[in-house]
Amino acid sequence: MPIRVVELFAGVGGFRIGLEGYPRRDDANYNVVWSNQWEPSTKTQHANMVYENRWPNANHCGENIEDVIENKFDEIPNHDLLVGGFPCQDYSVATTLKNSKGLIGKKGVLWWSIEAILRRKAENRPRYLMLENVDRLLKSPSKQRGRDFAVMLASLNNLGYAVEWRVINAAEYGMPQRRRRVFFLAYRNDTEIYNRILETENREDWLDSDGIIATAFPVREISEQIKRGNVEGDLINISEEFNLGEKNSPFENCGLMINGEFITVKTKPYYNGLKQTLGSKLINTEEVPEEFFIENEDIHRPRGWNYLKGAKKEIRRTREGFEYNYGEGRMIFPDALDNASRTIITGEGGKSPSRFKHVVEQNGRLRRLTPKELERLNMFPDNHTELDGITDTKRAFFMGNALVVGIVRKLGEELSERINVDVNQEQFA
Length: 429
Prior knowledge:
single chain, Rossmann fold, 2 domains, ten-stranded mixed sheet, about 25% helix
């Protein structure tokens, strides 16, 4: 029986591609039964246009998820796995809802949409979660390190989940982009996986070898310095008091939480397979539109490519006239083709020179990366985001917001293997 999936903050479908494939793999054990994509800051919903074009017959919703939860909650079907990559925001607890609906944060903070779905599903809440965020989540905010992640862990603990997490750099496991993101999996307290964690005598073994993330993405070693802590209790207290006054976050790049208690350690990746490179993802020169090639005058002009990519030590001035010393190191220019690419950013598109855009040399000419190449670096199908009305700059923006789908595929395959041996599989809510 396929694992029923709800995909939130779907973007252009990275989680769906990782779990189902595109086109759908014959051996896919996942079925996305409902998805949602809404970009609050734009009038035209470009990502939603792409999603609906690629999955025209899907049960997809292009409305504000907060409005759906408030006014159309019954349209969200029961499901086994909830997935989503949501923005890193301020997750502090802001207020208490009346009528015993629980605790929420600020409106527009999308973690609380996830929490609301889990809470309101009550007896039918999903058995598993797979979520993704930027790795700074583990250290945010700067004035109370680790509070945001602690609030999330406490929320999931109160809802009856165990959680394991790992910061994964895709390139360290042979994928073509150096993109670091924190992935975390959660397991409801009536699943076999939850019970296995509960019965594990040395829980660091789960992080080292026994866990789902450790199996999908092996580690060479874990640090002997194991940190322990607690996120059990009232969310307001966690929000206001967790790690208050401490300089560093207690959360390392790997960890496990169950029954409100967490352990966390530093890990080093282990991988000895083939490694994909930026050069291996380039299209042939004759396929590249002329607009992507860089004119020589743009390389050498003031504040051109050479300047922006180069080292700097200079005096700068604020709008108020305050002068300060500014310095930064040289970036590799053009980008090395024999290594994985740097992280794709949302500002990758457009002709203007930039310190952070990729520039490659091909057949003696410098050029920017095309949308197809950016898709390949995130392991999307070629031209997945190509659509009338969608500019190349917007396609680059999509890839700056996307995840490396190869990570989702590997996590999904391992999770599916574990679920298949779950003695309660046939009792999916």
